[in-house]
Amino acid sequence: MVKPKRNVSFSNEFFKVYLSDFSSRQLSLPPAFGIQFNGKNEALPKNATLKDGNAKIWQVGLVKREGDWVIKDGWKEFACYHSLVDGDFLIFKYDGSSEFEVELYGNDGLKNNGLKKEGRGLENKLSIHVKEELETEEDFIGSRPSTGCKQKDSNIEPRITRSQGLFGKSGPKSSETKIAKLGECKGAKAPSSVPREVPRFVMNITKITRFARIPKKFLRENNIELPKEIKLRDESGKLWPVQTSLWDSGYTVLTSGFSEFCRMNKLVPRDQCVFTFICSKGNLCNVIQVQVVRRGPRT
């Protein structure tokens, strides 16, 4: 039987940035990719395969949750076998039937041919230590590289506390709150083959989304410099220009363009944005990769 021709605008390729807090057990496909199958007779299959760069085939299951497609059954094994760590870059190419070809790139920029690399994931060597402390300046989560595989507390979901990152013109004063820093490792020393940590933090979406404040402590600890204009890169690869501003309070704030980013990406309260900072030499950051975790109710 001949399959009906797709719209010329159909895209069968997409990319994902691996973040262990959200991708170790399942992987959400970009909404822009999944929406291409809405209302069509030819939907994504429940059973599919992933083919890595070494032509190894992995059986996985696809499910639809709250309007988004998710790779669930079989994904954890795929991620563990390839020792994926935070910041790894994955390019998927869908054959239109049931197979996804997957190209893997480490956060050092080098292509992974699909073979497991000893030491990348630090399997059975490191445990995740969750540390609570009082924070009076800001309320955020910063995470370090982790494979999400065979770790002591791998079943603990990140605890997102009340975020002060999105607010109105004046902005509320942050109160003393507890934060959880995930991924602080204790135990064996990381081998030299493990890439340096990828700076990132998680922000809760609230009803007011005009501005987004970047925690001072986060920028200071990671020695990140931001120009007056940066670009937010969504999961479809689209770049959104956003202005940055240094307020009298000392906070760096994403201003013009941020509310448009939220609106066009259909963010609602209780959703979360994972901001991964793509820094060049000298820690200058011109692009922030944004991965959306859709947890808010959809109408």
Strand content: 35-45%
**How many domains comprise the coordinates?**
2
What is the straight-line distance between the termini?
A: 37 Å
- What portion of residues is helical? under 10%
Helical stretch tally: 5
Main sheet specs: 9 strands, mixed
Write the H/E string, N to C: EHEHEEEHEEEEEEEEEHEEEHEE
Whole-number radius of gyration? 20 Å
CATH topology annotation of the largest domain: At1g16640 B3 domain
Number of strands: 19
CATH class of the largest domain: Mainly Beta
For the biggest β-sheet, the strand order reads 10-13-18-19-15-16-17-14-11
Taking pLDDT < 50 over at least 5 consecutive residues as the criterion, the unreliable ranges are: 1-8, 117-147, 150-196
Shape: globular
Secondary-structure content class: mainly beta
> In CATH terms, what is the architecture of the largest domain?
Beta Barrel
Mean pLDDT: 70
CATH superfamily of the largest domain: DNA-binding pseudobarrel domain
Keywords: DNA-binding, Nucleus, Transcription, Transcription regulation
InterPro entries: B3_DNA-bd, DNA-bd_pseudobarrel_sf, Plant_B3_domain
GO molecular function: DNA binding
Domain TF-B3: 12-108, 197-296
